[in-house]
Input
Amino acid sequence: MNQYLINGGQRLEGCITVGGSKNASLPLLAASLLGEGESTLHNIPQLSDVQHMVEVLESLGAKTYSDGDALTIEAQTITGVSISENSMRQMRASNLFLGPLLARLGMARIPLPGGCRIGSRPMDQHLKGLAALGVDIIERHGYIEAKSAGMRGADIYFDVPSVGATENLMMAAVAAEGTTVLRNAAREPEIVDLQNMLNAMGAQIAGAGTSMIRVNGRRPLHGTTYTVVPDRIEAGTHMLAAVMTQGDLEINDVVPEHMSPVIAKIKQCGAEVSVKGNSVRVRHVGGIKPMEIKTMSYPGFPTDMQPQFLALMTLADGTSVMTETIFENRFQHVDELRRMGAKIIVEGRSAIIHGVKKLEGAFVEASDLRAGAALFLAALAAEEASVLRNIDYIFRGYERLEEKYQAVGAKVQRMI
Ligand code: EPZ
Output
């Protein structure tokens, strides 16, 4: 597995440009199956998760062509309805083909998602919604077999505001007769991106970004050209890098209104944040104030920034508390941070972090994407050398990370 050698303690200064959102790109790629004709996505990030999604598209019969940051998908002929177990185990977001395949072909066969490092990640809300649309679902031999002779709109209430379930149901409902209402829907900006692309393809959807989404179904959809929204989690990660290295970074191609909870917390810890158009400048000198954070569904504090903020808190002047309400096992980065001298106690869903003056260099291992990002930040802050292993996890969600950080003064290099 790839690894980074990071000589920490460098003050980072300069500009970093954020790429397209991973968590918007994946549903948009699945949605491209719904249009008769070609769809072209701009600002698609070069990430291993995106590459994996493209491979699944091609395994279903679609053709794809990339040109720089633009990716064209031609989905006239879809020859398959099955997602392999290997695909699902590699990436849970493979389940986002469920809705489009049912909409397009009236059937889909996908593996039940195996557990993942951060939690069990069930699909009950996806299946409850599809059943309400009239889809017949059988679970057997570890697979979900779904088919429908014709979906009909329904009024669906999600017990949990699931991002993936909201996206799958939006993509299924565009083919259902009549109107579908999704209540207690997830409100993330990536769902608004999906609504915008589907409407550009000819769909009639309203309400994304609120907890009630209305879909008028059975409209013919055509291909379109769409630009992916910037990645708010990548942007937040870079902002923390400025704080943790006592640096001064200007982060460009950001949508500031997608960053409100993150910007609020960065200001609360004592850093200086200035927003100008789609740029955010973060400067910090001096101590880091301790704080309490609880992860919530959007527009609350994002769980995907929890590991990175926990790394920040290891250096605070006092005791902080981080409570993770979304996933039941998202503190795998704690043991690795302890190896760097952090003082953290995990009690159930909360981590109590007693700040230390500085972190020590160490050999540490990424267990998942955002844990890897947290350890990357911790190593940049430590005033010694660290080796970060299993960085293939990081490539799932961060494009050209070492290149972007070398350009602002970080001493990081990739070792095979
Ligand atoms: C999306 O995952 C993101 N992934 C995750 O980002 C993100 O952490 C998560 O939303 C929450 O914001 C993509 O968008 C590709 P959920 P998703 O369904 O859709 C429970 C990253 O690091 N739940 O909103 O799988 C579930 O167990 C990744 O970029 C059910 O109970 O998340 C969890 O506790 C990690 N039943 C909560 O809801 C269901 O049917 C949120 O899950 C579905 C979910």
Summary: The first strand starts at residue 3 and ends at 7. The radius of gyration is 21 Å.
